[in-house]
Design brief:
This protein has a domain of about 30 residues. The chain contains 1 helix and no strands. Keywords: Cell cycle, Cell division, Centromere, Chromosome, Cytoplasm, Cytoskeleton, Kinetochore, Microtubule, Mitosis, Nucleus.
Length: about 80
């Protein structure tokens, strides 16, 4: 004699297994997407670091140029 609950439990287990398989597929797709995003973000990070270095160099050079112009004007004023 079969257990009446066994058939129901078997059906529920089959549904759970099917849903876990679907979840696993979804998580694999999510993992692939996150890896792709990370690769893209890495390229953006490199570009941002290059741009920040350029910005610092420009700021440094502008400050030096302004300082040099200030010294040149001061020495011209003193010579007069």
């Amino acid at each position: 004699m079969e257990n009446p609950h066994e058939e129901r439990q078997t059906l529920l287990l089959e549904r759970i297994i099917k849903n876990v398989d679907l979840l696993n597929d979804a998580l694999l797709e999510l993992d692939r997407s996150v890896a792709e995003i990370n690769t893209h973000n890495h390229e953006i990070t490199i570009a941002a670091e290059l741009w920040e270095g350029y910005r610092r160099n420009v700021a440094f050079n502008l400050a030096n140029m302004q300082e040099a112009q200030g010294h040149a004007q001061a020495s011209t004023s003193n010579a007069s």
